[in-house]
Structure formats: C-alpha cells, structure tokens
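Journal club side-thread
Mid-discussion, someone asked how the predicted structure for our own chain would compare to the paper's figures. Pasting it here so we can look after the session.
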Amino acid sequence: MPVQLLNDQQIRPTEYRKWRHAKDRFDRREKDQVIMGNLLETIPKQGLQVPIQLGIDDRYHDVYVADGHHRAVALMELGADEFPFHWYWIRSFGVRWERDAFPYHVLGL
C-alpha cells in the first residue's frame, strides 16, 4: 500500500483526528519518543517487521489505521514508498479479517 495514502482523507488514524495530531503527541511524550526512535532506526535497516492493520467501515467505507499509528508516522517521516498491511471490514455484526484483495475503490482511486 502506498504510504502517501496515509492522509486525513484516505487512510485516517483512529485514535487521533488528524495525522499531525498523532505526530505532535508522539513528539511530546517520552514513551512515544522511544518507540519512534526505535522505528526510525530499524525500519531503514530491516524494513517494517509488523504490518499495519487497516479497518474499513462497512457503512461509510472510511478506512482507518486500527493498529500501527507509530509505524505509520515513522514511515511518513522516513519518506517510505509502501507499507505492508492486513485489513478487515468493520461490520455491524462483527469484524472479519480478509484474505481477498484490498478494495482500493473505497479510497477513491
């Protein structure tokens, strides 16, 4: 998945209103600074070891980072091109991890 799609319109953060809010928080908190420092050091050498988890809201087709906010911000800061991911539908009757191809049409592509 292209890192450029991690933006406030296509793939949004779940825990923050905007990606800059996530980055601002990570810059302020010591615990987050340690996590980010580790990611910024290891990703260029080893790549992203744990895929980012994306959830798609079944009703509105909004796409969110469900797990991996630190990893996403680190990839953005590093200017990475792509990232590995897993995805699932967020449905009224539960969540189901998908093995099918990602439905890129939900991103407006």
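Post-session note: The two ends are 12 Å apart (CA to CA).
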